[in-house]
Design brief:
homodimer; 214 residues; mainly alpha; Arc Repressor Mutant, subunit A; Tetracycline Repressor, domain 2; 10 helices; elongated; DNA-binding
Chain lengths: 214, 214
DNA sequence: GTCTATAGGGGGATAGAC
DNA sequence: GTCTATCCCCCTATAGAC
C-alpha cells in the first residue's frame, strides 16, 4: 500500500479525509500527514487545494459516468423500435454508482459514496462549476432517455420526479445512517440487493399517475 | 429588521451563512459582520461556535417536529381501528418541513431548507449527537407508525424504503439544483404542490410489492 | 451587554536548498 | 521531486475597559 507514488497517496488520503470531514474542515496538513508525504508536495502536484478537490472527484466520477453511458447505450440498442422501460434506465443510472463502493480494486467502502453525497450538497460556486463539468453531459443523456420513456407525463411532474429520484440516489450512497434506525437488520454489503431495492422504490414513483391538484 | 436583539441577529445571520457555505467554511467573523454585531457577542451569548450551531438548528427543528407529531396524533386519532394509509403518514412527515420554508413569519426561503439538507450530510461526531438529540424521538414515532401501516413488508425491505424516503425529503428541500435541469418549468414557490408531488412519488415506492431476488 | 485588543494557534501557499 | 523554513493571513476564544 505504501508502494503507491506520492500523487496517488495524496489522492487516496484526501479522498478519505474529505469524505469524513468535508472540504473546508480538512486541511492540507491533515492530508499530508495521513499520506506520509511532505506538505509542499500538494502544491507541487496539484497547484492548489481547489484543484486537488477537483482531481479527487474526477478520478472516481469519470469511470462511473462512462459505465452509466455504456449501460444506457446497451439498453437503447436493444430497444430501437420503442423506448425502454423506465426501470431499465433507473438501473443504468444507479448501479454503476453503487457498485463503485464495493469494487475490490478500490477498497473504498462508504468513503467514495459519502464523497458524492457531499458534492451534491455543496453550494459554493466552484463546486457548482465542477459538478456541471463532470456531470452535465451524463445528466442530459439520461434526462432525454427518461423523457422518451415517460412521454405522457406533464413536464413539471417529469422534472420533479427526476429530482426526487436523484435525491434517493444521492442520499442513499451513504448507508451509515441506515444502521442508526434499522438496528442492523439491513445488509449494507449486498450491493446488488441495494440496487434492486432502490430500482424497485424509484420506478413506481416515476411511473405513477399524474399529480392532480387536490 | 434591525430591531431584533443581538442574539436573534446572530442566529439569523449564522443560519443564512451556514446554509450557504457550510459550518467549517463560515467563520464567526463572517457571522458578526453580516449581523452588524461585535465579534465577542457570539461567545458572550453562545459560549462557542459548536453551541451556536446547535442553537441554530434547534430553533427551527423543534417547532417542525412538534407539528409533525401533532399531525401524526391527529391521523392516528382518526384511525383507531385500523392503521392509517402510509400516504397520510408520509404527508405528516414531509409537509411541516417543506412548509417551514414559506412561513411568512420567517422570511427564510430556501435557506432553512438547505440547512437541514446539510445537516443530513454532515458526518462529524458532534453533528451525529446533535441530530440524535433533536430527531431521535420523532424518527422512532414515525417508524412505528409506518411499520403498523406496512405490516406485510419484510423488515429489511421496510427499513430500506424508509431510508430512501428520507433521501427524497432531505435532498429535495433544496430546490436550487432542480432549476439547473428543468430550465425553469417547475414552480418551486408552490409549496403545497411540491408536498403533493413528493407524497405521490414516495407512496408507491413504499407500498410496492416486496423486492425479490432477481 | 457591548466594546477593543490581543493571545495563541492553524491555515494555504511559496522560496530555495538538495 | 522532495525537503525545510517561513510568510502572512484568518481563525476561535478570552481578558478587561466601559
Amino acid at each position: 500500500m505504501d508502494l503507491a507514488d506520492t500523487k496517488t497517496k495524496i489522492l487516496d488520503s484526501a479522498e478519505k479525509l474529505f469524505a469524513a470531514k468535508g472540504f473546508a474542515a480538512t486541511s492540507l496538513r491533515n492530508i499530508t500527514s495521513e499520506a506520509n508525504v511532505n506538505l509542499a508536495a500538494i502544491n507541487y502536484h496539484f497547484d492548489s487545494k481547489d484543484k486537488l478537490i477537483y482531481e479527487v472527484f474526477a478520478r472516481r466520477m469519470i469511470p462511473i459516468n462512462k459505465e452509466r453511458i455504456r449501460l444506457l447505450d446497451e439498453i437503447e440498442a436493444k430497444n430501437v423500435d420503442q423506448p425502454p422501460h423506465p426501470k431499465e434506465i433507473v438501473r443504468a443510472l444507479v448501479a454503476p454508482l453503487l457498485r463503485a463502493a464495493n469494487n475490490p480494486d478500490l477498497y473504498l467502502g462508504d468513503i467514495l459514496l459519502r464523497l458524492f453525497a457531499r458534492l451534491h450538497i455543496e453550494s459554493e460556486e466552484k463546486m457548482r462549476e465542477m459538478f456541471k463539468g463532470l456531470m452535465g453531459a451524463v445528466i442530459q443523456r439520461f434526462i432525454q432517455a427518461f423523457r422518451k420513456s415517460l412521454p405522457d407525463l406533464e413536464e413539471a411532474d417529469f422534472f420533479w420526479r427526476v429530482y426526487f429520484m436523484i435525491g434517493v440516489m444521492a442520499h442513499s450512497v451513504d448507508t451509515q445512517k441506515l444502521n442508526l434506525i434499522s438496528h442492523g437488520c439491513c445488509d449494507t454489503s449486498d450491493v446488488e440487493g441495494i440496487i434492486d431495492r432502490m430500482v424497485n422504490f424509484i420506478t413506481p414513483g416515476l411511473t405513477a399517475p399524474a399529480t392532480k391538484k387536490e
